[in-house]
Structure formats: structure tokens, C-alpha cells
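Preliminary data (for renewal application), phenylalanine complex.
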Amino acid sequence: MNAVFHQAEALHEKIKNEIIHDAESFRIQYLGSKGEIKSMFSAMKDIEPKERKAFGQLMNAIKVTAESRLKEAQGEQQFSGKGGQKRDYTTPGIAHKFGTRHPIEQTKDRMIDIFAKLGFSIAEGPEIEDDWHNFTALNLPQDHPARDMQDTFYVDSKANILLRTHTSAAQIRVMENEKPPIRVITPGRVFRNETISARAHCAFHQVEGLYIAEKVSFADLKQTLYYFAKEMFGSDNIRLRPSYFPFTEPSAELDVSCFICDVKGCPVCKGSGWVEIGGCGMVDPEVLKSVNIEHPKYTGFAFGMGIERIAMLVHGIDDLRLFFENDQRFLQQF
Ligand code: PHE
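Predicted structure:
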């Protein structure tokens, strides 16, 4: 055995035992094009021909060792971060922030619970509606001036496909499919082409109610609203103002006293001490006719309320836009 063999074996030992601080320096030192293994290979010419095979095998074994140690070092470095420092497994983990339920959802659920106690079940309809369910069946034929009351977003104006402007559309679907007595609320999102302000948004939420049975009267409607106000606000200080809706007759606007300013006058109640939270009335016989419900055997009442308005009153919020901005500082308070 000549000295070159001994050198090669010494190199092999060195590679096996090397403490690797940096994988890349190790690679350059041993496996690089000017590295120690390459230069040892070039000593092949000094080896006697009959020993060349054995030397070649040894050199290959050295290369394999170096490569596997390099892989191992690279893996460790990737795992422990730059510089080859080991990870400290005792450091505390990163805490994840938990979300909260959106105040609109919370308010919606409370409203559903209150009406559930009165026996109302839930029905939902599509947000993209057709003209029939959103307007025509609700006694708003094609050229009815009251269509302008609700600025409508059309998805396809030729086919009369639109974003529903109220969840009353879903109530038509219920009346088409069910026989009286019917007692449903329809919670959901609605859309109107309105300028966004502290009091209005182009997408908002409603809970609308419908009760159809024999001998339903305006007094039943009033009692239902009193009960709701008492449960929701802890006060039944409400008033009904005569109004007009094509689908109810008589119709009224529902106001509650302004809990934001305690009736002293503020921007939300525009100084009046009252805030409008929705509309209501006795279902117009024309609507019952369009869904084939016998009248006057059956009569009914309907109401519709905006969830944002109610959430504002409950929590004393004076700008409706806050609900849509997803600012964590706001949402975390609920
Ligand atoms: N659908 C009406 C609206 O969104 C509210 C309403 C419902 C009025 C039921 C009367 C009866 O404006």
C-alpha cells in the first residue's frame, strides 16, 4: 500500500468525523471542483495499475460519505434556520387570534330567537331573484311608480333578473309552495342602488315576517311588534305611522324611540327622537290573489325590518358603514 492510500483513508476519517457548522463550506472544501476529494482523485496516476481498482473504490466510498453528510447537514440547517443553530423547542408557540361572530349575525340570531318564540319558522330565498317574486307578485306591475322606491341592481335587465331589494321576495316563494296557516320570517341580505352613508348602504340585511291564517287582524300585527320591541330593546316604546307599500293595505312605518341619544336628538334619529326600523301592514288581497290564497277566508300581516338599524340601536352605533369595514378594533367589541 502506498502513502496515497493512507492519505485517502485519513481523508475519509476526517469527513466522517467533521463537525459541520455550515453545509456550503463543507461542500466547497470536500466536494467542490477544487475540493479535497477531487485533488485526491488526481493522485490516481501515482497508483500502481493493479491497485487502481481498489483505490477507485475507496475514493467512491469517500465521495458517497461526503455527499450523505452534506445532505444531512443541509437538512438540519433548513430545519433549524440559518447558521445551523438548533431550534429551541421550549419557546412558546405563536398564539392565533380567534374571530368573533359579526354583530349583524348576532343581532339576526337574536331576532330569529324572538320570533321563534311566537311560532315563526325560517325561510330563505335566493339573493338573485326574478321580477315576479321581487315585484310583480307583490302587486308592483311593470310600470308601477313604486318600483322607483327601491333602486334596483339588475343582473340581466332583458330577462328581468335582479338582486332582490327585499326579502319579501322569499315570502312569495313560501306562499306559492305552502298552504295557510303560514308563519315565517325571512332573514337575509338585500341590495339597493343607494349612496353609501352613515344611514344607508347598497347591501344590507333584513328580517321580514309573514303570518297568514283565518281572521288575522291588525291588532295581531301590533301585538307581535310590541312583543318583539320589548324582547329586543327592553322597551316597547314604538309607534306606527301610516304609510304606503304596494303589497300591504293598510300600511305603516315602524318607529322605535331612539336609544342612541335617549330621545334627546342625535344624527341617527335626525333630532326627532324616533328611528324607523321597518315597514308593515296587512297583506294586500292582490298579493294573495297572485299566489292563489283564498281571500277573505285568509288574511295576513307582513312586516320587514333592517338588521343594521336594529344593531345600531342595541349597541349605540352611529355609523352603519362600520359593519362593512371589517375593522378588527370594531368587531372585537362584540
Ligand atoms: N319589504 C319592505 C321593504 O323592504 C318592508 C315591508 C315588509 C313593508 C312588509 C311592509 C310589509 O321596504
